[in-house]
Design a protein that fits this description.
- The protein is of the alpha+beta class.
- The chain has 2 domains: 4-36 and 108-198, Probable tRNA modification gtpase trme, domain 1 (Gyrase A, domain 2, 2-Layer Sandwich); 38-106, Aminomethyltransferase beta-barrel domains (Alpha-Beta Plaits), CATH 3.30.70.
- 23% of the residues lie in helices and 30% in strands.
- The chain has 5 helices and 11 strands; from the N terminus they run H-E-E-H-E-E-E-H-E-E-H-E-E-E-H-E.
- It has helices at residues 22-29, 47-53, 88-96, 120-127, 174-187, and strands spanning 30-33, 38-43, 64-67, 73-76, 81-86, 104-106, 110-116, 143-147, 150-159, 162-170, 191-192.
- It has a 6-stranded mixed beta sheet.
């Protein structure tokens, strides 16, 4: 089985734990690269109406997100800026649809990671100045902050009953963020896993 890490611009396949070790590592503290997931960005005063016209749900307030039917998510990063991530067909359709007035594309060449497990909080205390524990996950918050000096967009969530975070950053910082987080995760008893380890 070929892992997405084999072709990712961020991670190195050599860091991936053997398949037999991945479930336990993901339960303790797993790090997965999902940079190749399709995504689309847009912003501007006409964006809400344009996305609604395409049948997409709109998160009710800035810095929140909603799941999409068929998989994926839509995150509202500001009053009129959105990140849509999900199935290739959906994102390709968005990119091909003529934009309405006041709708501008936002290039999304992010490095994207999933980090989760029982020891997540120990890693976050070392790398980020935001305490995610008090956040109400039912409100589906989106947090814009920095992690080991890199500007990141973070969605805290639960995966398999364990705390997890989805992380996006500028792709040029992807290797640095991956290597730094992987080093700490390894010290805490975790390691690099394939994304399906969190399903």
């Amino acid at each position: 089985m070929t892992s997405p890490l084999a072709v990712s611009p961020v991670a190195d396949i050599a860091t991936l734990l053997p398949p037999a070790d991945q479930p336990a590592a993901a339960a303790r503290l797993g790090l997965a690269d999902v940079s190749l997931t399709a995504r689309h960005g847009c912003k501007g005063p006409g964006t809400v109406a344009w996305l609604q016209g395409l049948g997409l749900p709109i998160p009710p307030q800035p810095n929140s997100w909603l799941p999409l039917d068929g998989g994926g998510l839509i995150a509202r990063l500001g009053f009129t800026e959105f990140l849509i991530e999900g199935p290739d067909a959906l994102v390709a359709s968005l990119a091909a649809t003529p934009r309405g007035p006041g709708v501008y594309p936002v290039l999304r060449q992010d490095a994207a990671l999933i980090l989760g497990g029982a020891r997540l909080d120990a890693l976050l205390r070392q790398t980020c100045n935001v305490n995610f524990r008090p956040l109400d996950l039912a409100a589906r918050p989106v947090v814009l902050t920095s992690m080991v000096g890199v500007g990141v967009t973070v969605i805290p969530e639960l995966r398999n009953g364990q705390p997890a975070v989805r992380i996006w950053c500028d792709g040029t910082y992807g290797h640095y963020l991956w290597e730094t987080l992987l080093g700490i995760a390894t010290e805490l008893g975790g390691g690099a896993v394939a994304p399906h380890s969190f399903n």
